[in-house]
Amino acid sequence: MSGTTTAGARLRATGGGANRWVVLFVLCVSLLLVALDATVLHVAVPAVTEDLRPSSTALLWIVDAYPLVCASLLILFGTLGDRVGRRRILLCGYALFGVASAVAALADTPAVLIAARALLGVGGAMIMPATLSLLRAVFPDRRERATAIGIWTAVAAIGAATGPVLGGFLVEHFWWGSVFLINIPLMALILPVGRWLLPESRGSGDGPWDVLGALMAAGGVLGLVLGVKRAGAGADLIGPATLGPLVVGAVLLVLFVRRQRHRAHPLIDMRMFSRPAFTFSVGCIVLAMLALVGLELIAVQYLQLVLGLSPVETGLRLLPLTFAAMAAGATGSYTLARLGPRRMVGGGFVLTAGAVLLLVLMGQNDRPLLLTIGFVLLGFGLQTTLFAAYESMLSEAPADCAGGAAAIGETSYQLGAGMGIALLGSVMNAAYGPGLSGVPGVPAQAAAAAANSLGEAYQVAARLGGAAGDALYTAARHAFVHGLHVTLMVSAGLLLTGALMALRLPRAMDPHTAEQRDEAAEPAPGTPALPAQVAAAPHGHDVCDARVPARRAPAEPAGSGRTPH
């Protein structure tokens, strides 16, 4: 009975004509706010430091509390939405996000701001997987869903890229709290609209929700992301502050996977990873985000510290990347239908690698045309890759598992971003530091301090003054550009690795859903199952197993407009 009920709820909006595109608009607006909040604070950090006077540790937590909490809770809320309703989780996320934004805007101490940022992370974790899983339910037709995912991924890119521009404008004209205050009127509008317009959608709801498993997943992802972020901040890789969270996180995730494999009603059906298209799509998302975030961070430093651009000017220079991402998202459905996932993901990686190699031509002087061409190719290539990878991942997951699959995709996104900062940041530091040793007239202690970052090198050079200061300033700029070139080469190698990984994706776009492919492979009633099918059968009624005949919804009447499951 539950299978019939949930199938009807899951497809309520499917035959709604143009309404599903209005639903997509609402989902994209909410995603835009979450993506903006991930980067909008970056340019406000100096103003926050001047006003609240946080310690160095508190400042790190002000910046990192949001992405850490959001990444760690994606699986928890994604799978909870499969059970209690994705719309319900999304609306709760809207409300919490609005309240937390108000608290953050009016924070008068670092502790209050950290707590507010953590609450924003909880709200973001409720919103992000719910938007993607609702999209999966509202657009059962794969070709329409490809168009919707293209718009969805373009909006995410727009939010992340627009954040620094918007944040810089608000900080220059108002005060740092305004970067949070803009969320409140939008959330106040979108909450009642979403409650009235969005359809409810859930999985089968069989069996109890695995609270312990959800907490294990949250703790595991938190440990990994925290360890990766600390490594990216320059902490000792084998030190307890970095290695401890990494080990604890890895152990918890291994235990989580083992627990899910042995439960009759798991949070996440690990057999999704037996589908090569699903597994390699997730891997491509990690690699694409690893390259994008690491390169964006270094590009921002280059534009501000080497070329001397202001935060607003830096954001404007990055706008070609955003516009190219929008174009890739808008044309993604057309491209995917003609090229297929394999060539689209692989071609996106190759195009991005070519853009990265073109940017190696950047030097001490500003070359606007080169940067614009490089950023356009970078944005188009990476967005093409992310679009096709997300579409393949979501289409390979049964509809009952949409929340869990979306959470896996978003967690991969966050892990890739964290690893990009850590890995490419470490490469940058390793290539930059040696260039500051042996600068004439610069004491060893001053050279060691300058090796921490280009910004700190400028401060040390200003304190030294004279010929020694000038020599250190020049050496630091040259060392940074050299490090940038090395980092770009490493990034190109990672992107080409992603292109090889894409060879495991399907050659053509299969219009059928995962459930339809699985049901087509089932033996006819009364036909003995083959040994391979018996071996693959679940030990119990699996939450995400659309192949169990007892749970299949009755066939819809002809002409109902619904997709049979």
From TrEMBL:
Residues 510-565 are annotated as: Disordered. The keyword Transmembrane applies. Keywords: Antibiotic resistance, Cell membrane, Membrane, Transmembrane, Transmembrane helix, Transport. It is found in: Cell membrane. This is MFS transporter. The chain crosses the membrane at residues 21-45, 57-77, 89-107, 113-135, 147-169, 175-198, 210-231, 237-257, 277-298, 318-337, 344-363, 369-390, 479-503. Residues 510-520 have a biased composition (Basic and acidic residues). SUPFAM superfamilies: MFS general substrate transporter (SSF103473). The lineage of its organism: Bacteria, Bacillati, Actinomycetota, Actinomycetes, Kitasatosporales. Residues 23-510 form the Major facilitator superfamily (MFS) profile domain. Pfam families: MFS_1. It is a multi-pass membrane protein.
